[in-house]
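hey so i finally got around to running the thing on that chain from the lab meeting. sorry it took forever, my laptop kept dying and i had to restart like 3 times. anyway pasting the input first so we r on the same page abt which one it is
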Amino acid sequence: ALPGSDRCLVKLLDMYLSKLVPNSEHFYMRPLPTAPVDDMKPWYTRQRVGVNTIKQFLPKICSSTATDAKYTNHSLRATAITRMFHGSIPEKVIAEKSGHKSMKALRCYERTSLQQEQVAGQLISGINV
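ok and heres what got predicted. didnt touch it at all, straight out
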């Protein structure tokens, strides 16, 4: 989606965060039974969404789309971590964001990109990059 459009992910994330109860400790919170009349009030309770409910999100989303792709929470987590590695985000930051306590476990998600492989090949061949 284009930045600033109604489907812009940053805009949607900002809106979601603005509807959480202030100082929420968790990202996924239970919605109120009915939306408040006052649009400035939170739309969510202080109770977080349970782990089993979260595990069902992606299978439900995938089954309701016209794709045969099967994503899991773990596959999206792995993709996010790999993208952070490719974006040269420091390991400490990636570990904090992903909840990893062990750097060894975190490094299992580090994959080389096609671009990195091409640059490595050019360096080995003596081609200026």
